[in-house]
Automatic annotation (TrEMBL):
This is Uricase. Signal peptide: none annotated. The gene is pucL. Catalyzes the oxidation of uric acid to 5-hydroxyisourate, which is further processed to form (S)-allantoin. Pathway: Purine metabolism; urate degradation; (S)-allantoin from urate: step 1/3.
Length: 280
């Protein structure tokens, strides 16, 4: 006989923008919110009894309501606030997961100064957080960055790998290393300042990526993770995913030209995919 296993439900892609209108400038944030509930919902699945169901439409409205009420300055604080509100107001909920992804809006520079009320998307990357709150427990908090596109034009090699009858990849001691990095780190305890910790984590990722004498994506990924753990004391572990967005050297011999590592075809499919969690 079939039985109901693990289940959860909620609202995804709740997009909300908040503008705080200070006298001298506006503070604007754009968030994409996910709420997922775990609890006593079996009868809804098995018999169609909706009596314990908080509609996902109400979850969406809760996001707007709390965004208006909230004094949270960071996406982490907002995700915690949302999780706590749902637990406090819904006895049928045993565990709630909230996720917030923030777009990278920055004030535009006009005549050398930040414009008070005009913004520009600084990059495709998202700042992210995931909060899991079980009734009666402390929240578990992750922060991260998703889709950070970076590339270096030297200090990247890949040699010494297995060669067999299907190998076509030439060894390289100086290749291009491009990636769209995603990092998610878990806090063992809340840092004093989530935004400052995020800044330190991202600055460390960028510094190590730039300076590393890379023998492979795997090699660089591990050194980035180690440095991030050193930079943020409350970081318990970090999971990094770094696709290898290959840039292929063009064979210019056909045109009687040399190609001293100058002309490439950037590709993103297929790409290598490297992921690891680095722990203390
Ligand atoms: O850094 C790399 N790691 C690999 O595992 C790999 N495999 C590959 O074809 N190129 C690369 N580059």
């Amino acid at each position: 006989m079939a039985r109901l296993g693990e289940n959860r439900y909620g609202k995804a892609r709740v997009r909300v923008m908040k503008v705080v209108r200070h006298a001298t400038h506006h503070a604007m944030k754009e968030w994409d919110v996910l709420v997922l509930l775990h609890g006593d919902f079996d009868s809804c699945f098995t018999t169609g009894d909706n009596s314990k169901i908080l509609p996902t439409d109400t979850m969406k409205n809760t996001v707007y309501y709390l965004a208006r009420e909230s004094k949270s300055e960071t996406l982490e604080h907002f995700a915690i606030e949302l999780a706590e509100y749902i637990i406090a107001n819904n006895p049928q909920v045993l565990k709630v997961s909230t996720e917030v992804a923030e777009k990278n809006w920055k004030q535009v520079i006009v005549d050398g100064a930040s414009h008070a009320t005009t913004y520009q998307l600084a990059g495709p990357e998202l700042h992210t957080t995931q909060v899991t709150l079980e009734r009666g427990s402390k929240p578990e908090i992750h922060s991260g960055i998703d889709g950070l596109v970076i590339l270096k034009t030297t200090k990247s090699a890949f040699t010494g790998y297995i060669k067999d009858k299907l190998t076509t990849l030439p060894e390289s001691t100086d290749r291009i290393f491009g990636t769209r990095a995603t990092a998610t780190w878990k806090y063992s305890e809340p840092p004093a300042d989530y935004a400052a910790s995020r800044e330190a984590a991202i600055a460390t990722l960028l510094k190590v990526f730039a300076e590393h004498d890379s023998l492979s994506v795997q090699h660089t990924l591990f050194d980035i993770g180690k440095a991030m753990l050193a930079a943020v004391p409350q970081m318990e572990s970090v999971t990094l995913a770094m696709p290898n967005l290959h840039c292929l050297l063009v064979d210019l011999n056909r045109f009687g030209q040399d190609n001293p590592n100058q002309i490439f075809v950037p590709t993103d499919e297929p790409h290598g995919y490297i992921e690891a969690t680095i722990e203390r």
